[in-house]
Amino acid sequence: MERKRKTILFQGDSITDGNWGRDMDLNHILGHGYVYLLASQLGAEFAASQPHFINRGISGNRVSDLYARWNEDTISLQPDLISILIGVNDATSLISGDPRGATDRFERIYHQLLSETREVLPQTGLVLCEPFILQTELTANNWTELRKKTDEYRSIVRELSHTYHTLFIPLQEVFDQAADKVTPEYWMWDGIHPTAAGHELIANEWLKVVQQSEYAIG
User: Across the chain, which distance is largest between two alpha carbons, in Å?
Assistant: First the structure.
């Protein structure tokens, strides 16, 4: 009996997006961030099972933007595993006074998104990645408020993970510890977007959790 090929879908904002190509050029289809790192490592290691990796992260997205495109960019793809990293744009738009952040809908919309996904794709695994931020020159002006709101969202994501029985990837502490050893800008050039080294940290933490779970790629 032929083994079913697994489809792993990554969703989120610019951190996930990584400038992935919007056409079928396989040189660019996964972007140049943690999604690419995971796909290259797991794809090579488990070539016999030919895991299929899809990147649908979109730069600038908040959780409400994610929910607005969830049917066409997630449900219709029928993935075996969905990994979500979202939240920093919700925090920055709220703190900066951006009209898009006039109300804080992060928890409510995220809850709705997960509830619908569990209902429609009950067999699909879910991975919730914790939002994160670092203090740099570019995040210094509103730093206290940004960190407080990001920490609030981290707590919400952890609670949602428990409620919906998902895998959870903690990331803030990893970046905090890394920034204690080397300047924060080395890991996240503007305090929000990871560098190549920062994306490697995300990929490593993702592998630690997912590859020890029932949803391990193999």
Answer: 59
